[in-house]
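step: validate -> pass
step: tokenize input -> pass
step: predict -> running
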Amino acid sequence: MLAVMPEGLKGVVAIVDDEQSIRETVGFALQREGYRVETFADGALAWETFEHRLPDLVVLDILMPRVDGLELCRRLRGRSEALPIIFLTSRDEELDRVLGLELGADDYLCKPFSMRELVARVRVLFRRIALNREPKALPAADTLTLGALTLDFDRHLARWKGAVVSLTVTEFLIVAALARRPGHVKSRKQLLEEGYPHDAYVSERTVDSHIKRLRAKFAEIDPAFESIDTVHGLGYRYREGGA
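step: predict -> pass
step: emit ->
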């Protein structure tokens, strides 16, 4: 297990992956950003540590020996609902990605992934943690209100009719891209560029899965939610006057 404490420590990130090259390259990139890094070669080894103390964020592979990523995520959610979790998956593991998000992962990246993208998402999640601990209200410039929808861009937090909608980083970015221009159609490619700005390895059809989960999450709060339209052959749009 690697544990390095650089100056200006920003937080502790655990990397759980059975590929040594992934552990080393991700670990190096995050250490360079000022995070303390702990690495584990499988879920069982990680759980031995997590039972006693939790890191501040977990980067987690799905396919691992002994205890896989889905089971480890389930156990982690049993200990903490707030712990940020990012899954690393192969492009052909769509079902596992969906299960991981349903178990409470905050987001996922497909292998091979852009290291800039991973670092950016880690940075966003740590910023969300820090801002959520601050009691002060944010200035209005950091939010967008469109009918029943409110988007808090600093916290990457969405509300519908005042209720918090638990979105992943990617889901928030996609909703924001649509809501900024209500009534205008966004293609899958455009939404993909918004949701994964540095990652060239994600299929455009992934957007359909995100939209499906977005609608389901908003519908849990408001069964009448119909503000995200499908424009067949073109993409998606946020309905003008959606409420």
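step: describe -> The longest strand covers residues 85-90.
step: cleanup -> pass
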